[in-house]
Fold these 4 entries.
Entry 1:
Amino acid sequence: MTGLLAGFFAPWLIYAGIFVLHVLLPARRVKGYVRDKRSGKRLRYRLNGPLVLVVGVMAWLAAGYSGLMPWDWLWTHRWSGAAGACALGLLVTAAVVLTAPGRGGSLLADLYFGRRVNPQMLNGRVDAKMFLYLVGAVLLQLNLLSFAAHHFLTYPDDPSPGVVLYVALFTWFVCDYLIFERVHLYTYDLFAERVGFKLVWGCLSWYPYFYVVGLWSVADLANPNSPAWLLVGAALVFLTGWSLARGSNMQKFTFKRDPEKSFLGRLAPKAFSDGERRVLYSGFWGVSRHVNYLGEILMACGLALSLGWLLLPGPWLYPLYYVALLFPRERDDDRRCAQKYGRLWEQYCEQVPWRIVPRVY
Ligand code: NDP
């Protein structure tokens, strides 16, 4: 019973610790993309994700080395931990939504999509959205390490190299997100979404516990003895996806900040423009209209492949989730852009007919 309770409240405690680290550790201050409705000025953010991650992982290592906490404690308490994170997600959703004025729609819609757009606390020191993504990312990383530790403790003589590869690639994914936190300020979540169940519960519970579903499914299984070509292939699929996602996101980030600037000092931007608004159609954005989504799906496939259990459904739930998330999202974003850019978007669709996968979709 004590173990269950400890597991349940573990994510609460970890999130509280991350909050303190985020507030106290040095951070860079940057201007975002979203504007404050009242002042019309761009919102400002304090970002210190990489530092918080490093300190968080060091605390986990210290707890393991000192014997304060078994290396695979988060694995042992994964079910109660996921339940605790779920409950916290629901509580925080209710607190964030119900304390804001209604939007004139149904309460259920408000709870799901939220009422507040870009809430910030402590005089702008903490931005709710960026903090939610940060806690999700750090707990995801700790879960990855603890689940892998369980595998190593269970099979000390013959651990699976696939587990090592999976953790290495996923660590890359987490670090990449945190290192490029600033680029995230220019994405859909920041400018188009509100803070409700989808974002709060998604970050506090789904992100750290579901994203690791591949390792959750196989950490208890013996080494599948994957051939080297499969491991190399999995890494290549992941890295191809990463290049597409990171490349396209960086190109758009560069373009939004300075529409004349060449990407990586080489690729001059080509854009449809009416003198005021601009739609980029060169480089990554000339391959398909959301090649970044293709990149994300490929990364997820690389992760599933790396574990080596090709016929087990568990690892494939992760790429499937991305397909279910990103295909409808592309449709939503397309509608939003068609409305915002009008004729320029039509020209873009004629120039680049593919939504996500070039020559296929
Ligand atoms: P995008 O980064 O593609 O952003 C879409 C917005 O970019 C549009 O609404 C529009 O906004 C602008 N835009 C789109 N096309 C053009 C163009 N050709 N020229 C100029 N502006 C354009 O999508 P998301 O924000 O959804 O995703 C960002 C990243 O996050 C992606 O890599 C995605 O895969 C990833 N992601 C990751 C998730 C995860 O869990 N790991 C979940 C969801 C997304 P405007 O012009 O108004 O600025």
Note: Residues 51 and 134 are 11 Å apart (CA to CA).
Entry 2:
Amino acid sequence: MNNSQREKELKQKIDAEKVPRHIAIIMDGNGRWALEKGLPRQEGHRQGVETVRDIVRCANELGISILTLFAFSTENWQRPAWEVNYLMSLPEKYFQSELPELKRNNVQIRLIGDAARLPRKVRQAVEEGTEATRDNTGMILNFALNYGSRSEILRAVKLLVDDVTSGTIKGEINEKTFSSYLYTVDMPDPDLLIRTSGEKRISNFLLWQLAYSELWFTSVFWPDFSRVDLMEAVHDYQLRRRRFGKL
Ligand code: V0D
């Protein structure tokens, strides 16, 4: 069966009323994809951006409310300087080609992570994207940039302590209060986490928020991850939830 037949078949199998509200993706395997093809690593990242475009389109068509993509972790600074530099050029490139369509499709761009420590040109590009889409009411597209979950949790604890000390918050501190200090404030937790490229770890991504999420791992490298793969994950998610009688 070819890809477009498979896509049609999956489209019929997916219950449009019960798609996950929030999908988070660890986009892994650009480097290994390039290595296997004998291409430079940056070619993998370039192709990875194309995949981001396809997957954002597909998620939007499926009616996903929030898509969170792990683009750069706090650990990624340890990569060679030339690679980090190349990665830092991608947000600007991405918006140059995608911003008109994102605006047209009513997508709202947001950033999670420590933006203050990103190069100025990255902050500017991201700000342009978030600013240009801030009044959009469709799918929220979160990019996790310079993101690490433990430091997000620590940051939340510090902000919470500040508010307790200054008397800004009184009364009980519960899970809901705590969540409101995370970058993902006001967003429901991910229903589904996808990680590509065969690794079966969470790797310091959304540790608090993934407490009850379904996890879906695939050996497909991110540059090869397709609409069909996303739809397979969504379909599998629906089968699992049905088995637990939760839908
Ligand atoms: C490389 C695969 C989009 C993962 C996808 C700076 C690694 C392509 C963005 C992007 C990266 C980030 C923020 C934003 C708009 C776009 C991106 C990075 C890497 C790291 F507001 N793709 N992408 N950012 N890759």
Note: The chain has a mean pLDDT of 97.
Entry 3:
Amino acid sequence: MLTLLFASPANWDEYREVLPGALEAAGIRAQIFTLENQPAPDQVDYLIYAPSSPLQDFTPFTRAKAVLSLWAGVERIVGNTTLTQPLCRMVDPWLTEGMVEWVVGHTLRHHLGMDRHIVNPDHVWDPASPPLARDRRVAVLGLGALGLACARALQGLNFAVSGWSRTAKDIAGLPTAHGADGLRATLAAAEIVILLLPKTPETENTLDAAALAAMPKGAVILNPGRGALIDDAALLAALDAGQIGHATLDVFRVEPLPKDHPFWSHPGVTVTPHIAADTRPASAARVLVENIRRGEAGEPLLNLVDRARGY
Ligand code: NAP
């Protein structure tokens, strides 16, 4: 009988419905405890965890074989020096589906110029039609679980997609680049840029003033990655100058985005409140359980975070 500690009070109500069934379906016998009802820390086999949890000291969990995060992004926990156990981030197939839908929807909005027709107070009859997707160049920065799924979905609609990542890639049918030179070339050729990078010291301000200036005039940015990927002041200046045509932002340096932040009122910015892709408990529970199964079988854990890399 395994001892699991579900250490994210904010999520317990939704997981209590699905986690026991997922464990049972995998034939895993486990007792699930919460922070209100904790076992002795040295009896815990696995922690299921969200970085927003009040639990921040992992030292007493001497037997824990892994900390399984409910979140995809781990920047708030990766530097925790008490966390010596293996850390797995969440790669949830239904979260990925949600991200693909958000990215495709917002890409199509800008590609088709939908705003001109949705808000048209002067009743202007403007029959200009957009190019086909095959003639729209889209760059996806970050080719991990989410970026690659979005790139593939956009390719499925015929968009001319390219990608950028930290390490070199060889992905069938997808032109890719990496490193600083690769970024400049990727941005220079993209009318729509989608940010799906993790927040690390290296990715902070990936879109700074110089990067924004490297993009074609009027380019559109979609940021469902992390707020810190963009230099806010440089973005506002580039929007004011018409260098950037529009930015649709889901994530921010401070969340909720403060009421007086200029993004709220800028006509070139659309704010969505960090809703691009939620973890979905029903599918995420199966991912958690698969990792517990692997841990017990001595198989490699899925989605292990590389602490040195930061993601
Ligand atoms: P992932 O699988 O870890 O992929 C990260 C990608 O970013 C990889 O392709 C990686 O390159 C690349 N990368 C990392 N550092 C880089 C650098 N310095 N330069 C260039 N590329 C770099 O992550 P994921 O699951 O796709 O998630 C991406 C991010 O989405 C998460 O970290 C999180 O911040 C965000 N997110 C947002 C929401 C939302 O609702 N808005 C939901 C979930 C996730 P390599 O392939 O070379 O390693």
Note: The chain has two domains: 2-92+279-297, 94-271.
Entry 4:
Amino acid sequence: MLLTITTTRSPATDLGWLLHKHPDKVQSFDLTFGQAHVFYSEATDERCTAALLLDVDAVGLARQRRNAGNEMLAQYVNDRPYAASSFLSVALSQVFGSALNGSCKLKPELAETPLPLVARLTALPCRRGGERFLRSLFEPLGYAITATRHPLDTSFPEWGESPYFTVELSATIRLAELLSHLYVLVPVLDDEKHYWVSTDEVDKLLRHGDGWLNAHPEKEQIAARYLKRQGKLVKSALGALAVDEATDPDEAAAAQDLAEERLESRVSLHERRLATVLAALQASGAKRVLDLGCGEGKLLRLLAADPQFTEVVGVDVSVRALEIARQRLDRQRLPDNLSGRVKLLHGALTYRDARIEGFDAAAIVEVIEHLDPPRLGAFERVLFGCAKPGVVILTTPNREYNVRFENLPAGKFRHSDHRFEWTRAEFATWCEGVCTAHGYAVRIDPLGDADAEVGTPSQMAVFTREDRTR
Ligand code: SAH
């Protein structure tokens, strides 16, 4: 069973730091079910590929098991030595444990950085669902996928197709995320398990699914298959995920929105921010526009009133906010030719969503700072890598300005649900990273009245897709 991971971000041999395995060495590890070997098939500045080869000892495994009963033959004749399965997950956690947990003592910033990565699994069983199911698992996470199905036996084409695929998954993603996705989803595709599932497995699923499983469109299937359809365990896993969901940032923070607005009201910032974003959208010439994280729909109402925009789509993760937005839009008095152009979608910006692909422009106003930092990479992939609007207009607070808000205690964020607030330099660095990774050019504008020392209260980036700048 072979898994390779390739990066092309220079210096590509940094992959060795992340995996804690030196590119010049071949290393072997004893596992309970056989041996794992790690080696690099290429290691240059431009391109580096680490290989994890598992040598599963099927005979040794069969001998370890007693009471084999009538499964005797199946214990000796099976696909375990060749196909990716939960053995791979065990090996990932034992051989690449630090990388899987996202830690890299010597180069911590590298573990936090999304890298162009390609994972290749030479024989991945996709039982019950085939390629369609494979895609439904990895595409929402932002991967580009190539899958080649293998016949059961090339000498006997009449035997038909096997469940095995050679699969390549590509994304610009943190290595820890890639490894967690493989850890959980390979056994889900295999749909078999070499050991009995216990409550420990629920913990592993929740731990390695942290930050992405909760809102995955296939989460029920994933939990059911991962836990071998053990009803009680599946229920408990889904229950734990639902608790996460119940802490809808908005539900708890509705009052906070108001507090943030009050705090900023000295400069009536929000109104100005929306006017500036509207002007930038108008100037871009966009016709079909998205408002991502539209909240209660303030910008949507402005867009709805301008005939330049022929299609307006608001997306938010909070059902409550969408309900309020709908009511407000319905109350808006518009000429007949303009009404009914605004569509609202319930969705999370950290999951690939075909419904938001192919738009001229997208606005993301005061949303990014609500995302958990480890999910930023997913957001970038979904928006700039998959949805790819021609123009992206994104605003976020300038943290340096916080010292000018008299009512804000030092070191606090403007809103209790903000996961971070960036300085001007941090925002610029993030923007540049996005441009390099996804082929956009950016201009950053100040937003609000400028203070000589700490700048403006908010900042706005206007990204233009490179094929539109030429
Ligand atoms: N853009 C609006 C609302 C900003 S408040 C305005 O300027 O008035 C932030 C909004 O982002 C909230 O409505 C919240 O529900 C939404 N949000 C937070 N995380 C999200 C996610 N992962 N996907 C989609 N929306 C999200």
Note: The mean pLDDT is 88.
